[in-house]
Design brief:
Chain B: Component of a complex that catalyzes the oxidation of glycolate to glyoxylate. Chain B: This is Glycolate oxidase iron-sulfur subunit. Chain A has four domains: 87 residues, Uridine Diphospho-n-acetylenolpyruvylglucosamine Reductase, domain 2, CATH 3.30.43; 119 residues, Uridine Diphospho-n-acetylenolpyruvylglucosamine Reductase, domain 3, CATH 3.30.465.10; 111 residues, Alpha-Beta Plaits, CATH 3.30.70.2190; 156 residues, Alpha-Beta Plaits (2-Layer Sandwich), CATH 3.30.70.2740. Helix content of chain A is 36%, strand content 19%. Chain A has 16 helices and 18 strands. In chain A, the strands form four sheets. In chain A, strands 15-12-14-13-17-18-16 form a seven-stranded antiparallel sheet, with helices on both faces. Chain A has a five-stranded antiparallel sheet with strand order 5-6-10-8-9. A four-stranded mixed sheet of chain A has the order 1-2-4-3. The relative contact order of chain A is 0.12. In chain B, the strands form two sheets. In chain B, strands 1-3-2-4-5 form a five-stranded mixed sheet. In chain B, helix 24 crosses helix 25. The mean pLDDT of chain B is 88. The chains are: A alpha+beta, B alpha/beta. Bound molecules: flavin-adenine dinucleotide and iron/sulfur cluster (SF4) (2 copies).
Chain lengths: 494, 439
């Protein structure tokens, strides 16, 4: 509960309509798209301007109230779960595109703009903003920036950080910071823009951003290659890259995923195949034609049973849209769907896919895998039931082993979903002790009171330090006490 | 009671609650938020509590005892239009409509309504709607009110101002009802014109049959023109949708049983309705009787016989039609589009009329705000949604807005009046339009 005096002050800032603090409101902002996590905030506030945000943050700083920034709550790392209570600051009302600058090829927008909305608006002008997370019809650009979201086009075009040129943000003391700008070249001082991109709401509230745009590719074609088995498709991915073709998108779906997606989208996917690749290439028409041909040949050589090219852009778009439904559609199979985000260098993809299957078998859990094959970003997804505590325990173990396997193959624990709470126990695996220390001192310098999204990124204690070395070592790690100090009534897995 | 007993009692309470709330289906929501942009109340308010995902989270919390069945929970559940656009959008296949009915049932069991609300509800839902004779009387009263000059008096004397503004606004949209004489003449059986293809029963509905008696008659004649012998099904009553949506599952089931019995005695194989909302309910009776040894199978047979008018007509050869000079747009009925997945058929039927210029309405399957009695219970939100809808309708430059459900039809008429478009466009039921072409 917020103190009455604080509630009054906040209402004066945003207007009484936009401070929500009933138990029902708090509950509705106690979760995001991450399964198994929940924790109640003390209140929810929906500011409409940067000045309001600054005023809110000042009140919180004075009172020591924790702040959790929130877009659409579609993240998969429990980034918006208010583990330490406090105030959820929802930025969806700040949803204006401020400017699309066709001369400088930039777009400036508020954080609450829905990702797909920006796509539509810039594309009307023949421009292109590539980052396209599977959730782009839901997610906000603020959330994308804070998570450094990737997407289906990540292989060729990179992720959010490759496009953000400048930011406006409110710091934990309520001051407004501006970083970067429209200049293509800008090397003055530390790169604070890059620091804030991917900071998961732990350093500042992002209130405006300027992104780089590129010309909209002239044409694009989509093809679908079906394989009898997983390894054939993974080999095809490696070969395509080795042949120096960089498609815009190369998505991978295993049999389990194909079935559920088809069940929802009904677009005629081959449900009897072991795996499919959905490949898209864009650019000048002749290049696109040539690349599609070459990739089709490679797929056939690596054992594709069938390769078909979409007849029209609409048909292609439908395929890609279906891919975006993959995760949510998997939720049909069982009550709880836990998705992970292990990433390996793309040449190791086949090995990783195999390992996931071995690990799933070892722990007797049901895992489907799909993902952005082109950039080695896999989403092994486990269908389970949160009520079955024993199985959840096995799921945790399996995922732990999957992360370790990814790291051993030279990969990482998250390709795009962020660390949040879900993966904070593994961060040190990736960045090392020194990395953790540098990150912590940055956090300390910018947010000495630790009011910005506390309880994320850094594990509270070092109880669970997994040693690289695989299965046995993983077993030694402190048993699955929820090692993050979270006291919510739901709890954490892996 | 010992502590142990108290505990089991409250546990039983929770278990019972979980069942009514369809807890297993609630768990299937993976909170991805894909439904947010489809939800009209979320779009208007931006609040998670007014979104499908938020409502499901609150249901879950109530089912597990984490949240009370509070006044806010009550109003949040009734703030939902029940349009089920979220169901279409949800890749995880969460049956939101069923969840909502369960949640409202729990609300009704746990919350005390003010006496006046209870009386009005009791009279309307139990004494009026389900009883054909009483609806007949209502229709006569309405006829008298409209034709005797009483309406003019009421409108000019300012008497209308005494009514809540929601009622006053909707009163303007109520069509001229049929005369008692016309109602008496209703034929119990209408033979097929030309070659006979099949025999169908007609489900006339309750409100539909009072307010849109002529549309029901047109539907019968239309079916006949498409080659059907049309029988009026004796003993039928209200479909129960309004009751189920208002959390009164008991009464809804009572009505369903009556309809099932009427159907069994009629010997009809196919039963046609022309109201998207009723149709969705009629097709869900088997869910209502899930696990009931006596009724589940009977309900399943009943459900198998249900067809929406558009659904059936689209399978029959189109009779000769005359040309109509309209520019037409179509507003989906939510329960037809999202509930019954019937979208294409009405559009094809409209376009099969020669001379018609068809324009697709942007976001045609977004709720118009009518939603059963939502436009009376949540008047302001309903009108906010309607005004947004009318902007899009106006943009089509159509002179005819076609709907497939009585509630939507009334709402579109109110919308046309609110937007001051009376001179430019009309709203009609699809049966009336098609009948005009085959007449
Ligand atoms: C089905 C599905 C598919 C997905 N596919 C992808 C994918 O392909 N690629 C991908 O990268 N992600 C994907 N995601 C994850 C998710 O959509 C992204 O992380 C997205 O960027 C979150 O945006 P949001 O607006 O929902 O942010 P939220 O979930 O609300 O917030 C995410 C994080 O950002 C912080 N934050 C939000 N707004 C601000 C702000 N204005 N200032 C500071 N911090 C802020 C929050 O505190 C939180 O830590 C997917 C999710 C789902 C459910
Ligand atoms: S789309 Fe379905 S699974 Fe996703 S949040 Fe909405 S109801 Fe839940
Ligand atoms: S039924 Fe309609 S109003 Fe209700 S949650 Fe679903 S989309 Fe929103």
């Amino acid at each position: 509960m917020l103190k009455p005096q604080v509630a009054k002050e906040l209402k004066a800032i945003v207007g009484s309509n936009w401070l929500l603090d009933t138990p029902e409101d708090c509950l509705a902002y106690s979760y995001d798209a991450t399964p198994l996590y929940q924790s109640m905030p003390d209140g929810v506030v929906m500011p409409g301007t940067v000045e309001e945000v600054a005023a809110i943050v000042k009140v919180c700083a004075r009172e020591g109230i924790k702040i959790v920034s929130r877009g659409s709550g579609s993240n998969l790392s429990a980034g918006t779960v208010p583990v330490e209570g406090g105030l959820v600051v929802v930025l969806t009302r700040m949803n204006q595109i401020v400017e699309i600058d066709s001369d400088n090829l930039t777009a400036t927008f508020e954080p609450g703009v829905i990702t797909a909305h920006l796509h539509r608006e810039v594309e009307k002008l023949g421009l292109f903003y590539p980052p396209d997370p599977g959730s782009m019809n839901v997610s906000t650009l603020g959330g994308n920036i804070a998570e450094c979201a990737g997407g289906l086009r990540g292989l060729k075009y990179g992720v959010t950080k490759d496009y953000i040129m400048g930011l406006q943000a409110v710091l934990p003391n309520g001051e407004i910071l501006r970083t970067g700008g429209k200049s293509a070249k800008d090397v003055a001082g530390y790169d604070l823009t890059k620091l804030l991109v991917g900071s998961e709401g732990t350093l500042a509230v992002i209130t405006e951003a300027t992104a780089k745009l590129i010309p909209l590719p002239e044409s694009k074609r989509t093809m679908l290659a079906s394989f009898r088995d997983l390894t054939g498709s993974a080999r095809a991915v490696s070969r395509i890259i080795a042949e120096r073709i960089i498609p815009a998108t190369m998505e991978f779906l295993d049999n389990g995923t194909i079935r559920v997606v088809e069940d929802f989208a009904r677009i005629g996917l081959p449900v009897d195949m072991g795996a499919i690749l959905m490949i898209e290439q864009d650019g000048p028409e002749s290049v696109v034609e040539r690349d599609i041909q070459r990739m089709a040949d490679i797929c056939r050589k690596e054992g594709a049973v069938e390769v078909s090219v979409a007849n029209s852009p609409e048909e292609g778009a439908k395929l890609m849209q279906a891919r975006r439904f993959a995760l949510s559609a998997l939720a049909r199979i069982s009550p709880t769907t836990i998705l992970e985000d292990a990433t390996v260098p793309r040449a190791r993809l086949a090995e990783m896919v195999e390992q996931v299957n071995v690990i799933a078998k070892k722990y007797g859990v049901n895992i489907c895998t799909f993902g952005h094959a082109g950039d080695g970003n896999l989403h092994p997804t486990c269908m389970t039931d949160e009520r079955d505590k024993e199985e959840i325990h096995r799921v945790e173990q399996a995922f732990e082993e999957i992360f370790l396997a990814a790291i051993k193959l030279g990969g990482t624990i998250t390709g795009e979903h962020g660390v949040g709470m879900a993966k904070m126990n593994y961060l040190s695996l990736k960045v090392g002790e020194t990395g953790i220390e540098v990150m912590k001192s940055l956090k300390q310098a910018i947010d000495p009171q630790n009011i910005m999204n506390p309880g994320k990124l850094f594990a509270k204690d070092t109880r669970r330090r997994v040693v690289i070395g695989g299965g046995a070592a993983a077993e030694q790690s402190v048993s699955h006490q929820h090692g993050n100090g979270c006291e919510c009534n739901e709890h954490t897995a892996g | 009671m010992s502590t142990q007993q108290v505990e089991t009692a409250s546990q039983n309470g929770i278990l019972q609650m979980m069942e009514t709330m369809h807890y297993d289906d609630i768990l299937n929501c993976m909170r991805c938020g894909f439904c947010l942009s489809a939800c009209p109340t979320y779009r208007e308010t931006g609040r998670e509590t007014a979104s499908p995902r938020g409502r499901i989270a609150m249901m879950k919390a109530v089912a597990t005892g984490q949240l009370d069945v509070s006044e806010k929970f009550d109003s949040d559940m009734y703030f939902c239009l029940g349009c089920r656009a979220c169901e279409t959008a949800c890749p995880a296949g969460v049956p939101y409509g069923t969840l909502l009915e369960g949640a409202r049932e729990v609300v009704e069991e746990n919350r005390k309504r003010p006496l006046i609300t209870r009386i009005i509800r009791h009279v309307a839902m139990k004494k009026l709607i389900p009883q054909a004779k009483r609806m007949e009387q209502v229709s006569r009263l309405l006829y008298f009110y409209q034709r005797s000059g009483l309406r003019r008096l009421a409108r000019s004397s300012g008497l209308m101002k005494l009514l809540p503004k929601s009622m006053a606004e909707m009163e303007k949209a109520v069509p001229e009802v049929a005369s008692p004489a016309a109602r008496k003449e209703r034929k119990r059986m209408l033979p097929a014109k030309g070659e006979k293809r099949l025999t169908v029963g007609l489900f006339t509905g309750c409100v539909m049959d009072v307010m849109f008696f002529d549309t029901n008659e047109a539907t019968a004649k239309l079916l006949s023109a498409f080659g059907c012998d049309v029988v009026y099904m004796e003993g039928q009553t209200c479909c129960g949708a309004l009751h189920a949506h208002a959390g009164d599952k008991q009464e809804a089931k009572q009505l369903a049983k009556q309809n099932i019995e009427a159907f069994e005695q009629s010997g009809i194989d196919v039963l046609i309705n022309n109201a998207g909302g009723c149709g969705a309910a009629l097709k869900e009776y088997h869910h209502w009787f899930h696990g009931d040894p006596e009724w589940e199978e009977r309900a399943e047979r009943f459900v198998a016989a249900q067809r929406d008018m558009n659904e059936l007509l689209a399978t029959l050869p189109v009779p000769k039609m005359r040309s109509l000079p309209y520019r037409v747009t179509y507003q989906d009925s939510c329960h037809l589009a999202h509930g019954q997945k019937i979208r294409l058929q009405p559009r094809e039927l409209i376009q099969s009329i020669p001379g018609i210029e068809y324009v697709e309405l942007p976001e045609a399957d977004r709720c118009c705000g009518s939603a059963g009695i939502y436009n009376l219970t949540n008047f302001d939100m309903s009108m906010q949604i309607l005004d947004g809808k009318m902007k899009q309708v106006e943009g089509t430059k159509a002179n005819l807005v076609v709907t497939s459900n009585p509630g939507c039809l009334l709402q579109m008429r109110a919308g046309i009046q609110r937007a001051g478009l009376e001179g430019q466009m009309r709203a009609v039921h699809i049966a009336d339009l098609l009948y005009e072409a085959v007449e």
